[in-house]
Amino acid sequence: MSLKQATNISQHAFRQFLDRIIQLTPRQIEDLLSRAHDVRQRRAALAEIETRTEQERKCPHCNEERRQKWGQTRTGVQRYRCDCCLRTYSGLTGTEICGLHRHDLFLEVIRNMLSDTPLSCRKLAARLGLTKDTIWRWRMIILESLAEACDKDFSGVVEVDETYQRESRKGSREWANHAANSNQYPAPPRTQWYVYRSGRIKMARGLSQWQIPFLTVMDRGGRRLFAPIANRRNRTIEIALAPIIPDDAVLCSDGLRPYRSFCKKHSLTHYEVSNKLGKRVVAGAFHIQNVNALHARYDAFIRPFCGPATKYLYRYLRWFLLRAKIKPEAAFQSILAAT
């Protein structure tokens, strides 16, 4: 049987299937839609992989463009054989997800991460039928492979402010190691979280050494920077702002002294605003409301994750900023290109 005859038979069978849909019960229709959605998700991931192989036709082993199809992998990805080195490869060879079996679920994790309401690892794992450790590992691959989210070229009216997040040592074994061998592992400088919750020790209110400051910079064009800094001293603020704030910018900030010193040193026009009612806008146009709104959106974003570990915090900041900048399919292509 020729390929043309097989294609005609499949098309005929498909038309017969469409004609019989009207005979299905409502429950069968729901099952059909669910199965079609699963197949579509799987095919979407395979289509993105095939797009990469068409754009980069060179063999990853010897850079030869001549190739021939050589079957498929166990996950349905098209395999090729190089005509020069005779080695096989696919669109996943050399990528971070080369050994991944469920590319459709991986793409679904990307879609959830870039949605308006991303789920926690436990909830997303329950929805997709995976373990929370798998979801966590995939999220770290995604966040490490995506490009930097912070902007650098600010102009015009620039708003600057800072916010804080409590330090978290989630997943740390420092107290367990100290209990096992106190001579080798000294007691950590911070008490366990459940001691504060029990009420035996009162947690200090306001700013403390356990509060991590984030510098937030935003201009009226939508460019944003959201990054942790060591402290709020003059030197730290100078190092952070000098490379990104042009000489003709207008800086809007609160009454923090380092901002005032920075503007004086660089001869910038500076407007100080206050959080008090009636003093939040100066001269009818200068304020830091955009930065404050960004802080509110970040608080809503980070709340479901119950305080991620500080050592992974920069990844969550990148995740927060990328949600409005990149589409899931583009993110998947970026991960495939990050060899």
Task: Give structural notes.
The chain has helices at residues 3-20, 26-55, 103-113, 121-128, 132-145, 174-180, 193-198, 234-241, 257-266, 289-302, 313-322, 328-337, and strands at residues 67-72, 78-82, 88-90, 157-166, 211-219, 224-228, 250-253, 269-272. It has 339 residues and is an alpha/beta fold. The radius of gyration is 27 Å and the shape is globular. The model has no long low-confidence stretch (mean pLDDT 82).
Topology, element by element:
Layout: H1 3-20, H2 26-55, E1 67-72, E2 78-82, E3 88-90, H3 103-113, H4 121-128, H5 132-145, E4 157-166, H6 174-180, H7 193-198, E5 211-219, E6 224-228, H8 234-241, E7 250-253, H9 257-266, E8 269-272, H10 289-302, H11 313-322, H12 328-337
Parallel strand pairs: 4-7, 7-8
Antiparallel strand pairs: 1-2, 2-3, 4-5, 5-6
Helix pairs in contact: 2-3, 2-12, 3-5, 4-5, 8-9
Lateral strand order in the biggest sheet: 6-5-4-7-8
From N to C, what is the helix and strand string? Answer: HHEEEHHHEHHEEHEHEHHH
Compute the separation of the termini in Å.
42 Å
Q: How many β-strand runs? A: 8
Mean pLDDT: 82
Low-confidence stretches: none
Helix content: 40-55%
Going by helix content, strand content and strand pairing, the class is alpha/beta
Number of helical segments with 4 or more residues: 12
